[in-house]
Amino acid sequence: MSKNILIYLLIILAVATRFVPHPANFTAIGAIALFSGLYLNKKQAMAIPMIAMFVSDIFIGFYSPYIMASVYFGFAITVLLGRYLKNKIKLGNIILGAISGSVIFFLLTNTAVWAFGTMYTHNLSGLFQSYYLAIPFWHNELFGDLFYSSVLIGGYEMIKKLSPQINTATIK
What we know:
CATH class: Mainly Alpha
Distance between the termini: 13 Å
Helix content: over 70%
Radius of gyration: 16 Å
Number of strands: 0
């Protein structure tokens, strides 16, 4: 499979998971970010989740620029986690990467909702309330990241083992 086809399929998958019926935050974007960091070059790795988010945001709708920035930044950090794990692709590392990305995303985005939104008082109690009330959304995101990471990364690793033509760890 050529790298361009893979890249386009990843974007389509990530965008599609935001439109098909799903529990809140149970999408492939975080897994795409981790996958991209693991297997794509630096430029593509950062671009793929950002393009997927932007394209789907065009249709879903834009919201507070500060909160949106925290969402995009959270996925960028997950790409960097993937880059860090690039030469350490093992099941435990992938699980840890997906969980870490999810936790960082949760902390960043809910801090932004607290800081730039109007739902919570701007004190420590309001911040903790923001985190507490977002836990159900985080569970969905965590399970989505773990599920889609296992499908994408596990599937790609299995294809690499079964297909001699895709026996490279990184798409250049």
